[in-house]
């Protein structure tokens, strides 16, 4: 957990900092680039990670002295850049001209790692900033994975499955109530170690904080908070699904008796995306099955499954008593972690679904074209069905596709402690054993 320090250094207190997977990528970017931008949803831990690499900093969202730092940076952005390098500029979007000022200051010349910017709102288009993609290196940060929170023992690496060095492991089996607690707590650094009730309250507070900023954004447009909440609840009800915009509008009308136009749905979803509230999973379209038409709908995800639980007003005991919802939230948890693990090795997360209702919950494709197929199941009794489904789909791919078949098939499970390879060659990995 990181506690923000608003003293002269403007750096976070690192005494309770937990190591993050993104650190390796951040360190590599700092060696190559004069300006590094770490973006992600508020409260996911960007400031703490950036502070690990910096010698000075300024917090533009610091409310002390009537947001003095923000006012000074707005009047003269160069003032916020004065300090020992590397320098942290936290919540840079509060003074948008600061990236241009950093570029003009010579950050792009000489040694790398002069400035680290953090932002909880997506940067405007590059032509608005007058800073090119070659001048600032962007990294996306997400909430903590189970490996980062300590809820995964890390005995199995995703990389080992791809490169053929996997070895089996027998770990502890997590209970259903404990898994539910992990989901409603989420991967927020400040939640780790808190009692269950307190931990589940924080995601709701974070959501209110973010919505308050969305209600009247920097663009000056005032938005309807009730409609934003209704749309977010619709997204929560469709977590891990592929609901269309039309389906979301219908969902809002049925459950909240709120009518929203299609332009409003599109506009608000863009706001959610820019605030990193949503993190959709694109469809895999690597010409896998050319003889079968593929659905190209993205899978809907909020930034952390705890947000979906908070929006639906469901706690750990509620999940245990509603295994259908629990299954959707568990799938979201696994795909959140798989995305972070994959991206740390240069991979990308997708899903697959066609019009014959053949689907793969998660697809990870590496830069060299290799890809693996993952079926996600909450209970150990579902492993046989999941493995059979994956094997059947691989046979169809081999028969009908000109593209590459998956390198491996894997079932990610919740209520199992054993990581092993089945006689049919399918991997079985507990999410509580996985790491990058």
Overview of the molecule:
Helices cover 39% and strands 14% of the residues. The protein is of the alpha/beta class and 436 residues long. It has 2 domains: 23-140, Rossmann fold (3-Layer(aba) Sandwich); 146-435, no CATH class. It has 16 helices and 14 strands. Helix 3 (64-75) links the parallel strand 2 (56-59) and strand 3. The strands form 3 sheets. It has a 7-stranded mixed beta sheet, sandwiched between helices. It has a 5-stranded parallel beta sheet with strand order 2-3-4-1-5, with helices on both faces. It has a two-stranded parallel sheet with strand order 6-14.
Give structural attributes.
Rossmann fold; globular; 16 helices; alpha/beta; seven-stranded mixed β-sheet; 2 domains; five-stranded parallel β-sheet
Average pLDDT taken over every residue: 88
Principal-axes shape call: globular
Radius of gyration computed on alpha carbons: 22 Å
What is the straight-line distance between the termini? Answer: 21 Å
What is the helix tally? 16
Counting DSSP E segments of at least 2 residues, the number of strands comes to 14
Structural class: alpha/beta
Side by side, the strands of the main sheet go 7-12-13-11-10-9-8
Task: List strands and helices in order, with pairings.
Elements: H1 23-32, E1 35-39, H2 46-51, E2 56-59, H3 64-75, E3 87-90, H4 98-107, E4 115-119, H5 126-129, E5 137-140, H6 146-149, E6 156-157, H7 158-163, E7 169-170, H8 176-185, H9 196-215, H10 225-237, H11 245-256, H12 262-274, H13 305-312, H14 316-320, H15 323-343, E8 348-353, E9 359-365, E10 371-377, H16 383-400, E11 408-413, E12 418-421, E13 427-430, E14 434-435
Parallel strand pairs: 1-4, 1-5, 2-3, 3-4, 6-14, 10-11, 11-13
Antiparallel strand pairs: 7-12, 8-9, 9-10, 12-13
Helix pairs in contact: 9-13, 10-11, 10-13, 13-15
